[in-house]
Design a protein that fits this description.
By secondary structure, this protein is mainly α. The chain has one domain. The protein contains seven helices and no strands. It starts with a helix and ends in a 20-residue tail after the last helix. About 10% of the residues have low confidence.
Length: 123
């Protein structure tokens, strides 16, 4: 099995050195974008947990790995600061799950991860 980074970059014609940046902007809610600059940019200590999640996701080989990483991230930032809560500057775990489901095997299996995506309705 190929890691998520390889599969994502092959499908999206991106270079692997741009993987984290491409994911960052896909996963951060658009209303939080202005706060990134105000909080010191993507490399600031405020976004350390998000960078760790993206680094770890790069090596995920199936949905079980991805779910484990998402749960770690949730525990890491669950006691987040008031600033994180007010500005909404957390990566959207719903978006992480939907994106990883599109590229990693094991997407059809249900997990204990608390955020389950709504079923898609076919027309």
């Amino acid at each position: 099995m190929k890691p998520f980074e390889t599969v994502f970059c092959e499908e999206n014609a991106c270079q692997q050195i741009h993987f984290k940046r491409a994911l960052w902007w896909k996963l951060l809610p658009f209303y939080a974008w202005p706060f990134v600059a105000l909080l010191g940019g993507v490399r600031s200590s405020h976004f350390e947990a998000e960078r760790r999640l993206l680094d770890s996701l790069a090596t995920a080989k199936d949905m079980r790995d991805a779910h484990s990483l998402m749960n770690d991230y949730l525990r890491d930032t669950a006691a987040g600061s008031w600033l994180r809560t007010v500005t909404g500057t957390r990566i959207s775990l719903w978006r992480v799950k939907e994106l990883t489901r599109a590229y990693l095997p094991g997407a059809g299996s249900h997990s204990s991860f608390p955020f389950q995506a709504a079923p898609k309705i076919e027309p």
